[in-house]
Amino acid sequence: LSSDEYVAKTFERIRRLEGRINAFITVRDEQRVLDEVKMSVKKGGRLAGVLIAVKDNISTRDVRTTCASKMLENYVPPYDATVISKLKMEGAVILGKTNMDEFAMGSTTETSYFGPTRNPWDLSRTPGGSSGGSGSSLAAGYVDLALGSDTGGSIRTPASFTSTFGLKPSYGTVSRYGLVAYANSLEQIGPMAKNSRDLALLFSVIAGNDQRDATTIDYTPPSSVSPISIKGIKVGVLQDIMNASDPGVAGKVRDFLDRMSSEGAIIEETSLGMTDYVLPTYYIIAMSEASSNLARYDGVRYGHSSNMEGNWKEVYSKTRGEGFGKEVKRRILLGSFILSAGYYEQFYIRALKVRRLIRDSLEKLFAKYDVIISPTAPVLPPKIGEVIDDPVKMYAMDVATVTANLAAIPSLSIPAGFYNGLPVGLQLMGRYLSDTFLMGISLYME
Ligand code: GLN
Fold it and tell me: Does the record's keyword annotation contain Protease (predicted)?
């Protein structure tokens, strides 16, 4: 395929499907994209001339970065996130910025100011979230590579609902410089792709120590992945999550485990023992960090402004009242409440302690097992509108994913097949820095 054909085909597909799918908030100009593809094919690199879709909470120089919020509707960053600089160095070309839940708060890509993204496998359903635009851009065949971010499942849930591959990397392996902050202690930028090989390649390009993010560690992943034979590896299956899952979902995961077992893996039922606590712990910490991070949108420095005269309090309230959507406001209110004097110890400090207990109980599991498996999401992709007005129902979709963020460990979602025509995803969790090991297993099973 020549550069001209590749770019023309891609844009043709976008023109044909995007009206229904809405995977992108911004698609870049076709001529500019073509020029860059040609130039980077000449220059070379591990991703020379490859188009990539980037979640719209990752800073891209001269390309609007909205976080799917009215607050940043017209914000054009003057700088690239570290992951974007690294992509460009290897020759990747940004096709566009993908739709997401506003400020990455949600699990279905329905809280976006720019309207929901639809699931290419079934247009009446959500692609999951919050990186739903990235998942749909893969499933719609626009791109082979995409970037998402994962604070509590936002890469893995859309991967699961769109039958693609998504990695929430070990905390500290990928720079967050240029990622619009939601909950710093939980989130990582990560790769999404249509197979394990591409996933590992993209991970190796974006990972690495960064002076601009003090939480990054000195770790360089291998530049490619080889299949890892699963003969003799010990797999723990989270039985409480299996039991709480839609029978169609659990059935597909069981089929996959049977395949692993016939390849010689040792499969055992187990449990975290703390499953009832993971969601409250996650949401208390995530909302607290969110309320503090989002204080910066004051209508003065950048972003939406109410343009009114008045004292600071009035302008601040009006700007934020107009600029933020309902889910974001809910979290700012709850987060501020949790952090307020008198409640801080009762909620925030206690959540940090439980977080430690969750880490400890995972450590015990990893003394026994090499991999821990469960469904990625306990449900099939919901219909658009089905969970959006019921936050507790929406939060409950994250029961399997938030654990890895609380514990900083890697977690991978891979396709486990289809049930009634709808994608089912399977989640693998591993020890800290076992990212490549997880992808090696998934490559073997492909
Ligand atoms: N659904 C979770 C939340 O709303 C996770 C979102 C994410 O990973 N960014 O917090």
Answer: no
